[in-house]
Amino acid sequence: MTKTTAGVNHGRRPVLVGVDGSVSAQAALAWAAAEASYRRCPLRIVHTFTWPMIGDPFGLNLAEPMNDGLRTAAGWILGEAENQARHAAPDIKVTAALFAAGAVPTLLSQAQDADLVVVGSRGIGGFRGLLVGSVSSTVAAHAPCPVVVVHPHRDGTAFPASPTGRIVVGVDGSDVSAAAIRFAFQEAARRRVGVTAVHAAMPTRQHPSLRVPADIVEQVERQLFAEAMDSKRILVSGIDVKTKLVHSHPVQALLDEADGAELLVVGSHGRGGFTGMLLGSVSQAVLHHAPCPVAVVHRTKAKKPSPARPRMLQIAAPGHFADLKELS
């Protein structure tokens, strides 16, 4: 059972957001509530806590007497987040769920039924100076749907609900880049803002006897960029689209455009990514350093039967701890 606000968003997959009471999570909650309003879909808020462990001669056991205060604090965090979401987006359905489990497995399990996952760049307990925490980076790498990582402003405030910039997307001609372009156009259509597509042409190292003239390399890069964008033009009727081919490192090119952007969209991998790596070097770098929210989009895959979900404990609703429901 979860606590729900009224709304007419039935039948749509939700935007999922994780909260933990940190400033970064508050920014993620505000962004997620606005996104759910744009999509006219439900918003699902989750908060997790783990039981304290104490040592004994036989191993680790749960410290039962210590749990009441922990559950109360966790319920308060979730209740505050739900109230903020209801105030920010009164027209959407909001559900809030509390889990006695780890943050990463909970978010990944809940993401199986979500259209989008939104997380803060780092939460409570993150190492000082670490720009993106382990939870946000792991969820971005493993989630079955796009993930948006939200950095709070330097003054600690969330990004505004009303669009203030363009959608920036990295383009390199790969399959995952095509998925990122599609996502960027969809977001731009919802917000009624423009799209800036960026392609970085980096010089390749070659043996002197095999060196390709610079003008030929330029033509190839422009053709690659044009083909990647032309295949998506059908989706962008009425949207202002700007294309930029720059000669610099992809990370620097994207970060330059991200200043003042509404959202930066990247594929999880680009051309030449190592097989088996869940996040490429470019997506990892912009995830850490971009001054705006970053969406990480994975290659679209054929749907497979959902794996068994990890077992976890869900609290019925904030303030109601009489019953614990075990999920399987």
TrEMBL record:
<dbReference type="InterPro" id="IPR006016">
    <property type="entry name" value="UspA"/>
</dbReference>
<dbReference type="InterPro" id="IPR006015">
    <property type="entry name" value="Universal_stress_UspA"/>
</dbReference>
<dbReference type="InterPro" id="IPR014729">
    <property type="entry name" value="Rossmann-like_a/b/a_fold"/>
</dbReference>
<keyword id="KW-0547">Nucleotide-binding</keyword>
<feature type="domain" description="UspA">
    <location>
        <begin position="12"/>
        <end position="151"/>
    </location>
</feature>
<keyword id="KW-0067">ATP-binding</keyword>
<protein>
    <submittedName>
        <fullName>Nucleotide-binding universal stress UspA family protein</fullName>
    </submittedName>
</protein>
<dbReference type="GO" id="GO:0005524">
    <property type="term" value="F:ATP binding"/>
</dbReference>
<dbReference type="Pfam" id="PF00582">
    <property type="entry name" value="Usp"/>
</dbReference>
<comment type="similarity">
    <text>Belongs to the universal stress protein A family.</text>
</comment>
<feature type="domain" description="UspA">
    <location>
        <begin position="165"/>
        <end position="298"/>
    </location>
</feature>
